[in-house]
Amino acid sequence: MDYVIQAGDTLSIIAARFGTTVEDIIRANPILQTQAFIFPGQIIHIPLPGKAPIPRAALYIVQPGETLNSIALKFNVQYGSLLQANPQIGDPNLIYPGQIIAIPLPLGTVTPAPDPVPFPPLDPFLK
């Protein structure tokens, strides 16, 4: 199932809402492994509980003031790859807010996210 990120959403909130895990959402959306954060308007795939997640291209809703170049920079993808993933865009200088575009996934990104490294306690007497 696809989901449009809303303001205030976190992967934890989304996972709890749909009865899945953050890890499964990341596996179903490999672009999330290279992004520092999620964006309102971004479309992600929510894996159904009990089924293996299927990696796929990320979908994104163009926001006011964005260009293909700014979107390419936001998602750390090459401009040419972004154009190639969106053959429906006739004029690359003419995109509009609300338009849904595909964000290409780099090859080899379908790997599990590493386990987080725990931070040491602030107080050395706390364990």
From TrEMBL:
> Which domain of life, per UniProt?
Bacteria
* Residue span(s) of domain LysM: 1-46, 58-103
> InterPro entries, per this entry?
LysM (IPR018392), LysM_dom_sf (IPR036779)
Q: Which PROSITE patterns match?
A: LYSM
Q: What is this protein called?
A: FOG: LysM repeat
| Organism from which the protein derives | Pelotomaculum thermopropionicum (strain DSM 13744 / JCM 10971 / SI)
Q: What is the lineage of its organism?
A: Bacteria, Bacillati, Bacillota, Clostridia, Eubacteriales
